[in-house]
Here is the input.
Amino acid sequence: MTSSAADKKYLRRLGHNLKPIVTIASKGLTENVGAEIDRALNDHELIKIKLSVGDRAAKKLLSDEICTSYSAQLVQSIGHILLIYKKSKKPNPKLSNLLRQ
Here is the structure.
């Protein structure tokens, strides 16, 4: 879905009012944090993640690792917040941030 600029703009608009579901702190991407990201992406499709790590390079490296590990696409990165998207195979209309809008 996110191949064009219009699609990304639509996802950014939907993600504007979302709160971060997962926070990644100094321990980085642990197994439990990874499981929570995977669950959130399967349930909600579009999520925000808050990064409380060091500098800009560390944030970029972590965002690339998240997107690669969970086959997600980075929609937007502003400050400490990432907005990522992954299409669900069977989206739940009550949980999906795309279908509830």
Observations:
- The beta strands are 20-24, 46-51, 73-78, 81-85.
- The chain has one domain: 5-85.
